[in-house]
Design a protein that fits this description.
PMM; seven-stranded mixed sheet; binds magnesium ion; metal ion binding; Phosphomannomutase; about 260 residues; Rossmann fold; Hypothetical Protein, Haloacid Dehalogenase-like Hydrolase, Chain: A, domain 2; 2 domains; alpha/beta; about 35% helix; single chain; about 20% strand
Length: about 260
């Protein structure tokens, strides 16, 4: 029998994006939402799945993620907790291995060395747990230089051409390239979007129904894949108040205690 079977909706898990779904973007969760979610949890299992790292998620959840939620998935599930218990952690380096990582980094640096662009500064490749971030101008440019690069890139397609070369060179490595922000693009394994967390759910519990709530469910948004996954029932929300409203109706939990 499932450990969640004593809850009214014991075969169901509700997963929530953090930013814009549980909280105002980049802000902390409100006390009334914390209180409401505790009453939801009495009826159904709940979990968080955020793109940020665990430190940032715990900041936004006022350090209660791993006590007030049944699952906490940071970096889309690369760091995973069931309650306070850490599940396996995965990294981009672990996925690629050192040899391939160096091939990838060397290729990027060689290409950057061959580029002639108006300005170059420092930190061209930034190493992160779940990805590398590549910037032709370098991440420690000033704000003015950043704006200038963005305008130059719009006209000359520096990043687009760069990604095209990488896609060709590293075809078959299972990599995904995502141009975002003003000066860089990310490189990470295919499938390391929010659907990544679902493998932990499958390994550590047995739910018949998984609901997902998120605010960036449109194409290109970071909730798009999990919202549209066949394994979840997607719910688009516009704010944490909307999340609360939808949960209140779905599970018959009054908004005020
Ligand atoms: Mg969001």
């Amino acid at each position: 029998m499932s450990e969640f079977a004593n809850r009214e909706f014991g075969d169901t898990l509700c997963l929530f994006d953090v930013d814009g779904t549980m909280t105002v973007a980049r802000a902390e969760i409100t006390e009334e939402m914390q209180e409401f979610m505790a009453r939801v949890r009495a009826k159904v299992a709940i979990g968080l799945v955020g793109g940020s790292d665990l430190v940032k998620i715990e900041e936004q959840m006022k350090n209660t993620a791993r006590t007030a939620y049944d699952f906490t998935f940071a970096e889309n599930g690369l760091t995973a907790y069931k309650g306070a218990q850490e599940l396996e952690t995965q990294s981009f380096l672990g996925f690629l291995g050192e040899q391939k990582m160096q091939k990838l980094v060397n290729f990027c640096l060689k290409h950057i060395a061959s580029l002639e662009i108006p300005q170059k500064r420092g930190t061209f490749v930034e190493f992160r747990n779940g990805m590398i971030n590549v910037s032709p101008i370098g991440r420690n440019c000033s704000r003015a230089e950043r704006n200038a690069f963005e305008a130059y890139d719009k006209e000359h397609g520096i990043r687009k051409e760069f990604v095209g070369l990488l896609e060709k060179e590293f075809a078959g490595w299972g990599l995904k390239f995502s141009i975002g922000g003003q000066i860089s693009f990310d490189v990470f394994p295919e499938g390391w979007d929010k659907t990544y967390c679902l493998r932990h759910v499958k390994n550590h519990a047995n739910f018949k129904r998984i609901l997902f709530f998120g605010d960036k469910t449109f194409e290109g948004g970071n909730d798009y894949e999990i919202y549209n996954s066949e394994e979840t029932e997607g719910h688009a929300v516009t704010s944490w108040e909307d999340t609360r409203e939808q949960l209140s109706k779905l599970f018959d939990v009054p908004i005020k205690a």
